[in-house]
From TrEMBL:
Its EC number is 6.1.1.1. One of its GO terms (molecular function) is tyrosine-tRNA ligase activity. InterPro entries: aa-tRNA-synth_I_CS (IPR001412), aa-tRNA-synth_Ic (IPR002305), Rossmann-like_a/b/a_fold (IPR014729), S4_RNA-bd_sf (IPR036986), Tyr-tRNA-ligase (IPR002307), Tyr-tRNA-ligase_bac-type (IPR024088). It catalyses: tRNA(Tyr) + L-tyrosine + ATP = L-tyrosyl-tRNA(Tyr) + AMP + diphosphate + H(+). This is Tyrosine--tRNA ligase. Keywords: Aminoacyl-tRNA synthetase, ATP-binding, Ligase, Nucleotide-binding, Protein biosynthesis. Belongs to the class-I aminoacyl-tRNA synthetase family. It comes from Otolemur garnettii (Small-eared galago). Signal peptide: none annotated. One of its GO terms (biological process) is mitochondrial tyrosyl-tRNA aminoacylation.
Amino acid sequence: MAAPMLRLFSRGWWFGAPSLSGVLPLGLRKAHSDVRGLLAAQSARGLFKDFFPERGTKIELPELFDRRTSGNFPQTIYCGFDPTADSLHVGHLLALLGLFHFQRAGHNVIALVGSATARLGDPSGRTKEREALDAERVKGNARALRRGLEALAANHQQLFNDGRSWGSFTVLDNSAWYQKQHLVDFLAAVGGHFRMGTLLSRLSVQARLKSPEGMSLTEFFYQVLQAYDFYHLFQRYGCRVQLGGSDQLGNIMSGYEFINKLDNRAEYKLMRKQIIPTTKSEKNVILIVPYHHNRLELINTFIALSQRYLKLFTFLPLPEIDHLMQLHIKEPEKRVPQKRLASEVTKLVHGQDGLDSAKRCTQALYHNSIDALEVMSDQELKELFREASFSELVLDPGTNVLDTCRKANAIPDGPRGYRMITEGGVSINHRQVTNPESVLVVGQHILKNGLSLLKIGKRNFYIIKWLQL
Ligand SMILES: Nc1ncnc2c1ncn2[C@@H]1O[C@H](COP(=O)(O)OP(=O)(O)OP(=O)(O)O)[C@@H](O)[C@H]1O
Ligand SMILES: N[C@@H](Cc1ccc(O)cc1)C(=O)O
């Protein structure tokens, strides 16, 4: 008899509020309340949408997550991330939050960096074969991804602890088991368990076979590797649940079938659906790896996003989210839920320091705060005014407003530049300066941190770092 499995897709944000009975399979409804609590809470937040398989399971999924069912607790759940780029993005964050929710409920979770799979390239959800990545590039990306995953897990642990005893968070890399694998041995041992008809029937394969470009053997083989990963994690760590976006359904099914052929113990999976359609477009990807992304960009994006994302991207209890929404109805201009969303996500991604820094940037940018500007480091200022040009100038005695603007190449030479100042188009440190001959004063035009922020017109910023002060 086929072993039980589960698929849980997250609800897309465009589908409306999830209703429990509509989302969860029959088994869950008869489960006892504790179990119901964990999956129901996740579904109520809109994190998961569907289960795989839906029927014919020997053990119902809820038992798998039940603290009180002996032998079943804790479970190990994994999700894979291919290092095809050197940054995590918001789609990954969603997958990670899925893992974090299980971790918070006491289960052990594995974030798998797919250094081996990234070399092949997952064809799922793609219309064209991706550019092949060489081993060095994948290695660099994998290091960056691992750092990002570990940083997020550490922020989660330090800043979102709720006093319960959590499961472990482990980062693994599938190159660890493929490096040692001999190709012929692998094909001989594994290949026979995969049937061509089944592999060919996967939607991701079908779509690519019909495309003008077709599909390479390398890409076709991808699902075998992901299936084997699942098997390996099942054998080695007892991992019975895999989490993935809806594009991962075919790969997860292959893993499920493969494990069942080799081992007929109960097997389960969870799946999550992609909920941010724009994330797949390269232009719209919001990079979140801590060391080379723009915190302000992240905070602004979350301010602009729908309130629904509070449920998806934060750990705030639902009643608290309802309360924030009530506040929003009374005073929408305060944008309370959006600000809270931005700060919760920034805290998770960048830690408390990152959040404080993003708040200083917001103060300096939107509230023209000189105090905030004064305590900002060069790095923060550069990040804040990413579009701004940055120059280092020597402060000669008697340097005036006109000299400063010219040396920073902020105004044109000649009378036109001069007039831009007299006509009020120039400000230094958020204060308008209309006299081109005014000599710069430390403490007014030059901040305590040795910086000046020059603004020309409405949005052209120039940061000047004064040397030899
Ligand atoms: N926008 C998204 N919404 C929800 N889940 C996502 C999103 N983007 C990726 N995921 C999920 O995150 C996990 C890791 O994805 P993966 O590393 O393959 O990223 P990707 O964006 O699909 O990039 P690529 O295919 O170019 O490597 C997968 O389970 C994937 O389905
Ligand atoms: N195929 C997944 C990443 C992944 C890699 C290896 C796995 O074992 C699982 C998942 C994706 O592209 O989104």
